[in-house]
Amino acid sequence: MTVSYWQADGTQPRREVELLIVGAGLAGCAAAYHARQLGLQVVITDKADLAQGASGRNAGFMITGLDAYYHKAEARYGAAVTREMWQLSRETIAFWKRVIAAANGHVQADTRGSLLLAESEAEAHDLALAARALQANGIDVQFYDYDPLERGYHAAILQPEDGAVHPVQLAQALLEQSGAELLANNEVYAITQDAPDTVTVATQRVIFKARRVLLCTNAYSPFVDDYFADKVVPTRAQVLVTEPLPASVIPYCGYSNYGYMYYRMTFDGRLLLGGARHTAFAQENGTSEDRLNPFVQAQLDDYLRRYFPEVRVPVARRWAGIMGFSVDGLPLVGTLPHMPRVGFAVGFTGHGLALAAGVTERALRLLLDGEPAGAVDAARLA
Questions:
Q1: Residues 312, 318, 323, 325: is their CA dihedral positive or negative?
Q2: What residue ranges define each of the domains in the chain, with the CATH number in brackets?
Q3: How far apart are alpha carbons 50 and 56 in whole angstroms?
């Protein structure tokens, strides 16, 4: 992140704050909510505005777990870490549901569950193994050895705790319920800890003197501090949404091809379809450029024709969003080695709605009291 001398010459007003949160997405707003429960004075700042990054560009899936099927996560991370992460995601989704309930109808949500669908016999075999592992760990799922949608899939898992939400409305409710102040359109250009108990954060509009700072900057973390350069990879996602349909074509939010394809009905009767990043890894991984990829969008069009052939209405809008992938697939919580009063909760790997609330709570407790962060502790990468 850079700001020219002409945009901010150092004469900005000074301001003291107990906790400054950088990033006004779902993670930053969840962190503000948790911090206010602890009685802290909180200010959120963002280079854009509320939910203008991935938080306002995702598909709105509240999906339990990681970006790997349960048995594959066990093979990669071990049984204990996998169990811990699944529980953390369940706690996060339960938290979102409480926020939604407290919003008194101002956050549109569907909590009927989600479907994991297999596009091949090989993936159907993996779904069977995943269902067995989930059930062995006490997680309520239902396995189908056929396609419950009758659309050409090979098997499915129904996860009843999951659901879909309007993510921008959720962010708005979080901000309101947190009571935090948001200072939007205010880019950070320097962070220094020049005293044992104070962090100076220079932004375009204000120079903050903060007791503590929490970075919830996800994909943009490498632009904030070089510490993240080899830990968080900006990754682009592509989405489209149709004009309204005469009737719903899928009863749940669903995803398939190991999570690379995902789809749901919107609350005003449109079909949302996203993914296909696996068809263009070279272009979509490692980029923070927010633009449409015509090749990937064409893959989405092909998928729409193949699996939802009855959808004949035009595409109403296409967009892209930049996610922050951690190098090992787990979120990152810690404090900067050279600035111990600057904490972070980043690297959600496309699963911010699954994990952000639980992860930011751990980040706050680590920053404030030194409590261990568990499986998401960034020290594991050392």
A1: positive
A2: 1-109+161-231+327-382 (3.50.50.60), 114-160 (no CATH), 234-325 (3.30.9.10)
A3: 8
Asked whether the beta carbons of 302 and 275 are under 8 A apart, the reply is no
Decide if 160 contacts 111 (C-beta within 8 A): no
Confidence of residue 2 (pLDDT cuts 50, 70, 90): confident
Bridging pattern class, strands 207-215 and 14-22? parallel
Q: Is the pTM of this model over 0.85?
A: yes
Q: Mean pLDDT over residues 300-318, rounded?
A: 98
Q: Give the model confidence (pLDDT) of 220-233 as tens digits.
A: 999 999 999 999 99
346 in Cβ contact with 335 (< 8 Å): no
Q: Which tokens sit at 24? A: 């006004």
Strand, coil or helix: 187: coil
Structure-token pair, residue 84 = 């811990």
Phi, psi (rounded to 5 degrees) for 376: -95, 5
What does the chain come to in residues?
382
